[in-house]
Specification:
- The complex is a heterodimer.
- By secondary structure, chain A is mostly beta strands.
- Chain A has helices at 2-22, 160-170; strands at residues 31-32, 36-43, 46-53, 58-65, 72-74, 81-86, 92-95, 101-106, 108-117, 125-136, 140-151, 174-175, 184-191, 197-204, 214-217, 223-225, 229-233, 236-245, 255-256, 260-263, 269-271, 276-277.
- Chain A is built from two helices and 22 strands.
- In chain A, strand 2 (36-43) and strand 3 (46-53) form a beta hairpin.
- Chain B has helices spanning 6-20, 67-74, 77-83, 106-115, 129-134, 168-177; strands at 38-41, 46-48, 56-61, 88-94, 122-124, 138-139, 142-145, 151-155, 192-193.
- Chain B is built from six helices and nine strands, in the order H-E-E-E-H-H-E-H-E-H-E-E-E-H-E.
- The longest helix of chain B is centred in the N-terminal third of the chain and has 15 residues, at 6-20.
- Chain B is an alpha+beta fold.
- Classes of the chains: A mainly beta, B alpha+beta.
- At the A-B interface, strand 10 and strand 11 of A face helix 1, helix 2 and strand 9 of B.
Chain lengths: 290, 198
């Protein structure tokens, strides 16, 4: 029975591929380079930016880490697409030489695009976007391309691109507050006697099990964040991240926020809207270790 | 009653980190003293940071074999920014390890500089010591040292590719010339990783 199911699923996939190839184009032409290729895809009322990468090459998360930069898409040539921004799947970590690290994706990635799209009455909507991206291995190569797509007035929910986009959306990190069954994440900043600051992030283990947990932060305007050090405890995961103020000439505010993404679970978690007291802010009492 | 005010503590934090030396991924904080250096230019002539005390100094981490660094050179972004600020000294530092394939010998570097109109000194830091002291991560990565020898800016040359790019270094130099502090004083550098040796 099981084999039979797989057979039917495979057949359905093949049929869907054939349908896409012969019917409408919900994917634009690939913009090719030696290292990667990129295109726009559409389906289910949404847009996405898809990359396929040659072995060893990667493109970037919103915080690219110590090198690189995230892809940028400019839809200003298409008035029907407004307020477009890329949504970022959970990244992985790439260790570079000399202790540097970057965050991104290898092999293939779809960045779903959040945008306000004004539908056309009839017929496909021509979409044009300017793409700037950097692709790196040890070396990095910047590329620019004009991506185009004939956005169908209506896409079939069973369209293969719609399904792939839906899967990419479903795989985005889920905001912790929308996942009550997920580990409860708490964040605090502690100051050592010498003034060194450490960010501590704890995830109380619920029913979720982490395979190879990792933690990523968006770039912070006030602090450089060091490499997270993981201490697995019975109660869950605890990360310690050294914080270095980036500017000694400006006083630190009383609180700040840290946008984080935690991976290693079945689904990545994200959060960071809540203000965290910064120990050296000046007014708050600092609890120093004894 | 605390012995130190919070701001003094954070200052001490910065100084402690400076004294302890830095990994390449560490960040030199704005307001911290700029690490002194003596490096050789492409002709083998020694250049020190100290000789420019009293002037604003721009440090550009450069690697002609990094396409991002090369792109800025070909678009003349660096030389035009430098030309707009004759009040500042502009130095490029190449921290590429001699053992990395990106390393460029003096003759080839000179040819590249000439082709791209680079007239400011290019200094070799093949040990990576100065790059690590500043926490230079990318090419390009820009630092501005103020006339008192303190770091005034750490980050990108501009907000990146695209027609609406903002030149942060130009804005920071204008602020310093007007006696103001750069804002932003820190941004995220963008480019290839600096090719430090082992």
């Amino acid at each position: 029975m099981r084999a039979n199911f797989h057979f039917h699923a495979g057949l359905a996939l093949i049929l869907a591929l054939v349908a896409t190839a012969t019917a409408r184009g919900a994917a634009g032409p690939w913009a090719e380079s030696s290292e990667a290729r990129a295109r726009l895809i559409a389906g289910g009322g949404g847009l996405g930016l898809e990359f396929e990468l040659q072995p060893g090459w990667h493109v970037y998360w919103k915080n690219s880490g110590d090198a690189g930069y995230a892809p940028r898409l400019d839809f200003s040539a298409t008035s029907a697409v407004r307020d477009a921004r890329l949504l970022f799947p959970a990244p992985r970590r790439f260790e570079l030489a000399a202790g540097m690290v970057s965050f991104g994706y290898e092999h293939a990635v779809i960045y779903p695009i959040a945008a306000t799209i004004t539908p056309t009455a009839a017929g496909p909507l021509p979409v044009r976007a300017r793409l700037d991206y950097l692709v790196c291995r040890d070396e990095c190569v910047p590329h620019a391309a004009d991506l185009t797509l004939a956005l169908p007035a209506k896409t079939d929910a069973h369209d293969i691109e719609a399904a792939r986009l839906a899967a990419a959306l479903a795989a985005l990190p889920v905001p912790a507050e929308e996942a009550p069954e997920a580990p409860r994440v708490t964040i605090s900043v502690a100051a050592a006697a010498d003034g060194a600051l450490t960010l501590e992030l704890s995830a109380a283990s619920g029913t979720w099990r982490a395979a190879a947990p990792d933690l990523f932060f968006e770039t912070h305007p006030l602090f450089a964040l060091g490499a997270p050090e993981l201490k697995a405890a019975k109660s869950g995961l605890r990360f310690r991240i050294p914080l270095q103020p980036r500017d000694l000439t400006r006083p630190l505010p009383g609180t700040t926020t840290f946008a984080w993404t935690l991976t290693g679970f079945g689904r990545a978690l994200s959060g960071g809207g809540a203000p965290v007291p910064v120990a050296l802010a000046g007014t708050a009492e600092v609890a120093l270790p004894h | 009653m605390p012995l130190l005010t919070p701001n003094k503590r954070s200052l001490i934090l910065g100084l402690t980190l400076l004294a302890a030396g830095r990994a390449a991924s560490a960040d030199l904080a704005v307001g911290a003293g700029a690490p002194a250096f003596e490096l050789q230019d492409l002709d083998g002539k020694a250049v020190t940071l100290a000789e420019f005390r009293g002037k604003t100094v721009v440090l550009e981490w450069i690697n002609p074999n990094c396409p991002v660094s090369r792109g800025y050179a070909e678009r003349k972004v660096m030389i035009q920014t430098a030309a707009a600020h004759p009040e500042a000294v502009w130095l490029a530092i190449n921290s590429t390890s001699r053992s990395h394939r990106d390393f460029l010998a003096p003759a080839a570097h000179k040819a590249y500089d000439q082709k791209n109109g680079i007239g400011y000194p290019v200094l070799y830091d093949t040990s990576g010591e100065v790059g690590r002291a500043y926490g230079a991560k990318t090419t390009p990565h820009m630092f501005i040292v103020d006339e008192n020898g303190k770091l005034a800016y750490n980050g990108a040359i501009d907000s990146g590719p695209g027609a609406t790019s903002t030149n942060y270094v130009d804005a920071a130099l204008m602020a310093l010339a007007a006696g103001q502090r750069p804002d932003p004083a820190t941004t995220q550098p963008m480019g290839c990783s600096v090719k430090y040796g082992g």
